[in-house]
């Protein structure tokens, strides 16, 4: 099935460092979403982006909807141990009969105290 | 308020058997979607139901089927299980079809096929 190109696959960082990850697609989306998944749990929505060029923050998280509508970026500032987990981007085209999410393969974040 | 509830949480089945997974959406949510997440991958879309009608289907074989009940709960059925069907099956509910930020996921059912 279709999956978005998400990078990096994994990151090992020191507590307090900033983190950047991105997601690209061959097709356009009208919504980009970023999720975090902890072991044994379902994905939890972090940020939703609705317009090309949009920059949105949620606490230490900032995400941007690319101008081309084919990419998105997520930044985490001053990482802390509880940021550990797998981060997924997802694209969504809604309207009419559509409404399913297309996910990336995930970025696994490890934080050293 | 209760979130999305899935049952069972874990399941072990033998190749060739059939399995039924269940999902109860958030109260007031009328759309339910099913996703398959193989280890190390992102979730893959299987089905979406809205108002008890199938509104979308992913690239999965006919062995996969689903339905939505009048109370908006849903079941996912998989027949003739293969080893490759081993995965975490996630259910997501939303107020309506395609609500951009309204997709809430359950904790999933971990299916192991041996």
Short account of what is shown:
The complex is a heterodimer of chains A (113) and B (114). By secondary structure, chain A is mostly beta strands.
Q: Outline the low-pLDDT stretches of chain A.
A: none
N/C terminus separation of chain A = 37 Å
| Alpha carbon gyration radius of chain A | 14 Å
Structural class by sheet pairing and helices of chain B? mainly beta
Report on this model:
- The complex is a heterodimer of chains A (113) and B (114).
- Chain A has strands spanning 5-7, 10-14, 19-24, 31-37, 44-49, 55-58, 61-65, 71-76, 85-92, 101-103, 107-112.
- Chain A is mainly beta and 113 residues long.
- Chain A is globular.
- Chain B has 114 residues and is an all-beta fold.
- In chain B, a hairpin with a 2-residue loop joins strand 5 and strand 6.
- Chain A binds chain B through residues 1, 3-4, 6, 31, 33, 40-45, 48, 50, 88, 90, 92, 94-95, 97-106, and chain B through 4, 31, 33, 35, 40-45, 48, 50, 55-56, 58-59, 90, 92, 94, 97-101, 103-108.
Question: Topology of this structure?
Answer:
The complex is a heterodimer of chains A (113) and B (114).
Chain A: E1 5-7, E2 10-14, E3 19-24, E4 31-37, E5 44-49, E6 55-58, E7 61-65, E8 71-76, E9 85-92, E10 101-103, E11 107-112
Chain B: E1 5-7, E2 10-13, E3 19-24, E4 31-37, E5 44-50, E6 53-57, E7 64-68, E8 74-78, E9 87-94, E10 104-105, E11 109-113
Parallel strand pairs in B: 2-11
Antiparallel strand pairs in B: 1-3, 3-8, 4-5, 4-9, 5-6, 7-8, 9-10, 9-11
């Amino acid at each position: 099935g279709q999956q978005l190109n998400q990078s990096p696959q994994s990151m090992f960082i020191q507590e307090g460092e900033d983190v950047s990850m991105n997601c690209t697609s061959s097709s356009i989306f009208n919504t980009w979403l970023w999720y975090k998944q902890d072991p044994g749990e379902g994905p939890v929505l972090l940020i939703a982006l609705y317009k090309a060029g949009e920059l949105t923050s949620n606490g230490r998280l900032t995400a941007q909807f690319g101008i081309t509508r084919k990419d998105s970026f997520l930044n985490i500032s001053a990482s802390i141990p509880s940021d550990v987990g797998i981060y997924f981007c997802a694209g969504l085209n809604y309207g009419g009969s559509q409404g399913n999410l297309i996910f990336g393969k995930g970025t696994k974040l490890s934080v050293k105290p | 308020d209760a979130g999305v509830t899935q049952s069972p949480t874990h399941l072990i089945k033998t190749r060739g058997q059939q399995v039924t997974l269940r999902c109860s959406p958030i109260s007031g949510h009328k759309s339910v979607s099913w996703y398959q997440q193989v280890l190390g991958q992102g979730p893959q879309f299987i089905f979406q139901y809205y108002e008890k009608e199938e509104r979308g289907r992913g690239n999965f074989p006919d062995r996969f089927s689903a339905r939505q009940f009048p109370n908006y709960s849903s079941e996912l059925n998989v027949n003739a299980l293969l080893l490759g069907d081993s995965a975490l099956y996630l259910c997501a509910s939303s107020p309506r079809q395609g609500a951009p930020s309204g997709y809430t996921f359950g904790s999933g059912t971990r299916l192991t096929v041996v």
